[in-house]
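Input (structure):
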């Protein structure tokens, strides 16, 4: 039986919320469990109606989308966030990812891309539209999938993908094997990956291997 993905929408424009609800309710495997006009209303709604995905606008009164995203990660860790906005600013994408967003789209996205983003994020992956990725590269912001990681963590991903053990990585970076293990666990948690094999695949997908 197909799993139904529960969506909650937050946007301060009533017509936008109504439009997204109508669109999403036509898509297979998706149900809308509620909508909110601002971040504060959204957080209150999530207490009553748990959701798999929160689809958030950036600019909202009381608590904006970026702030709400961070609060969702703390208060409702099972809910993954996709930001969707008209503002094509690299700094907004970067702030959203830093606050835990797993996806980012612009409001000119197609229904097919929106559905793909929801399905990928619900399954534990990330999704950034080609427009978002191009914006980040044009602003020298790099790969959006790596923005939540520190330089040291990216370095450790590269070395893990090369097949080095924790001891070998520690010797190369002048840190203890235990510190390497701590970094690896943090990386897996940040990227929502189950094991080292998945981390190696991630490194290959994002061209972190030589």
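Output (sequence):
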């Amino acid at each position: 039986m197909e799993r139904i993905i529960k969506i909650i929408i937050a946007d301060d424009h009533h017509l936008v919320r109504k439009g997204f609800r109508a669109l999403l309710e036509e898509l297979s495997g998706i149900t809308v469990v509620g909508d909110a006009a601002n971040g504060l209303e959204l957080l209150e709604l999530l207490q009553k109606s748990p959701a798999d995905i929160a689809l958030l606008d950036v600019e909202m009164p009381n608590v904006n989308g970026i702030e709400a995203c961070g609060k969702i990660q703390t208060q409702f860790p099972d809910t993954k966030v996709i930001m969707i906005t008209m503002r094509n600013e690299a700094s907004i994408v970067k702030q959203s990812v830093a606050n835990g967003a797993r996806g980012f789209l612009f409001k000119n996205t197609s229904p097919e891309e929106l559905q793909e983003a929801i399905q990928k994020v619900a399954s534990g992956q990330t999704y950034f539209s080609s427009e978002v990725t191009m914006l980040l590269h044009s602003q020298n912001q790099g790969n959006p999938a790596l923005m939540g990681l520190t330089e040291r963590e990216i370095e450790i991903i590269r070395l893990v993908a090369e097949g080095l053990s924790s001891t070998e990585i520690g010797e190369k970076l002048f840190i203890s094997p235990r510190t390497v293990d701590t970094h690896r666990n943090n990386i897996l948690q940040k990227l929502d990956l189950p094991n080292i094999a998945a981390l190696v695949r991630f490194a290959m997908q994002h061209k972190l291997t030589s």
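Notes: Residues 149-205 form a domain with the Arc Repressor Mutant, subunit A fold (CATH 1.10.10.10). The mean pLDDT is 88.
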